[in-house]
């Protein structure tokens, strides 16, 4: 066990400033309005810093700075950009513990999660995109005997993105790594619940980036979070043996009962095959009971704090809905301060408790009879951002995954990986240069 000291306390690995302005043009600048907002840590429920309140005037300043920087940054070579991104990854790795504690203090997740997932993923995003653009080459297509189409990539210019409070630093990396790799300048607007940890990141990497290439405007409240109510399907054969695979499947169930809201792709609907329903639910509930709720700065803690009191109230309203509908409360349901117990309901999948979107430590369990039934229940409500399938029959899991209405399906795992090359497409356009080497006429007239 490691117990990290809270920011502001002796021995802490991270020190937040008392106040942060916007980060525009490579500098921290005061907001045009002169207004700041208090930022509360869900770990203690106390204010630990202030951040500038963003207005349209601040966003205009940031966009102007980004526009100027985009021209020079976009004209650099892919190799030059790759070198910078690799340096960013190295610097983040050097400050990994500091950034993990900063993230935990800002959004309440257990520091163990930030140490093993969030910050390593942030590092990997920059390394992966650096490697991709360094190795990338243009394309040439022979359109005719003497005509070629030369294809290269150009940045879109300025990227403006609003970040959700789920995975604040990782979400920033999901934008920054591909957008910068493609040659763009960026304006980020962190969620009002988690505006501070990105300033710690900026303190770590800002000197590696040309001024204006990355800009941050805080204090905006309009940050919708897409919650998927993603299905997690467990087939009967997971209980064929009491082995490591079963333990992994139970972990896959419990880890999302432990999710205090930071995973929008969390499979908070569990579908269990009828033949093993009672036995699996008993084992899963026991695994949930062993989850440790506590101080997020303690590496033994498995369940941290909900990001804000408003979000906590939303989770509690969802729990009240489940009770009112008659869903059976298997475990949890209580709250104290920013902390909500891991909660498990079971019941009919048509109850509202199974379809309502919520970001918190709540899993709703229902049963299914066969493959067709699983697909019908899982796809109820339309396209989801993710889904999970657990079973020893890989052929079944593979074919079933193709039928699920989900953008991404995990089979016997539920680990988020960097988007890689697919992310670059959002932040650049293809340039076609069609060249004829012939002096013959066009042939139209």
TrEMBL record:
Q: Name one Pfam family in it.
A: Aldedh
**Top-rank taxon:** Bacteria
GO MF: oxidoreductase activity, acting on the aldehyde or oxo group of donors, NAD or NADP as acceptor
Q: Which residues form the Aldehyde dehydrogenase domain?
A: 33-221, 243-420
Q: Where is the signal peptide?
A: none
User: Which UniProt keywords are present, listed alphabetically?
Assistant: Oxidoreductase
Give the matching InterPro entries.
Answer: Ald_DH/histidinol_DH, Ald_DH_C, Ald_DH_N, Aldehyde_DH_dom
Q: Which PANTHER family match?
A: ALDEHYDE DEHYDROGENASE B-RELATED
Family the UniProt entry places it in: Belongs to the aldehyde dehydrogenase family.
Q: What is this protein called?
A: Aldehyde dehydrogenase
Q: Which organism is it from?
A: Lentzea fradiae
């Amino acid at each position: 066990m490691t117990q990290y000291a809270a920011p502001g306390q002796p021995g802490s690995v991270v020190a937040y400033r008392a106040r942060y302005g916007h980060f525009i043009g490579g500098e921290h600048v005061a907001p045009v309005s002169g207004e700041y907002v208090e930022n509360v840590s869900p770990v203690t429920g106390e204010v630990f810093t202030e951040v500038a309140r963003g207005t349209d005037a601040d966003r205009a300043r940031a966009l102007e700075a980004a526009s100027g920087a985009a021209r020079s940054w976009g004209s650099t070579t892919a190799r030059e950009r790759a070198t910078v991104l690799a340096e960013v990854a190295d610097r983040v790795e050097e400050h990994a513990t500091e950034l993990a504690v900063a993230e935990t203090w800002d959004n309440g997740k257990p520091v163990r999660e930030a140490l093993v997932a969030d910050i390593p993923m942030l590092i990997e995003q920059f390394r992966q995109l650096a490697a991709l653009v360094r190795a990338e080459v243009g394309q040439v297509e022979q359109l005719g005997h003497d005509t070629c189409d030369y294809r290269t990539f150009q940045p879109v210019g300025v990227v403006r993105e609003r970040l959700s409070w789920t995975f604040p630093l990782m979400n920033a990396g999901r934008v920054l790594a591909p957008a910068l790799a493609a040659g763009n300048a960026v304006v980020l607007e962190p969620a009002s619940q988690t505006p501070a940890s990105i300033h710690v990141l900026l303190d770590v990497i800002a000197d590696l980036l040309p001024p204006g290439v990355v800009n941050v405007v805080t204090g905006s409240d309009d940050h919708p979070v897409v919650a998927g109510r993603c299905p997690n399907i467990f087939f009967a054969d997971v209980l064929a043996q009491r082995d490591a695979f079963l333990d992994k499947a139970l972990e896959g169930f419990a880890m999302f009962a432990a999710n205090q809201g930071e995973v929008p792709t969390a499979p908070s609907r569990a579908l269990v095959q009828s033949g093993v329903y009672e036995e699996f639910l008993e084992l899963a509930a026991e695994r949930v009971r062993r989850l440790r709720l506590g101080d997020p700065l303690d590496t033994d803690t498995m369940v941290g704090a909900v990001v804000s009191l408003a979000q906590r109230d939303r989770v509690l309203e969802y729990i009240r809905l489940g009770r009112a509908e008659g869903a059976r409360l298997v475990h949890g349901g209580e709250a104290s301060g920013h902390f909500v117990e891991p909660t498990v309901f079971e019941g009919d999948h048509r109850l509202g408790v199974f379809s309502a979107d919520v970001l918190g430590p709540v899993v709703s369990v229902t049963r299914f009879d066969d493959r067709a039934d699983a697909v019908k229940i899982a796809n109820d409500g339309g396209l989801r951002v993710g889904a999970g399938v657990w079973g020893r029959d890989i052929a079944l899991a593979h074919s079933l995954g193709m039928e699920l209405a989900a953008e991404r399906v995990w089979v016997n795992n539920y680990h988020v990986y960097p988007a890689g090359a697919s992310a670059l497409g959002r932040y650049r356009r293809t340039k076609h240069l069609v060249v004829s080497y012939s002096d013959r006429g066009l042939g139209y007239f």
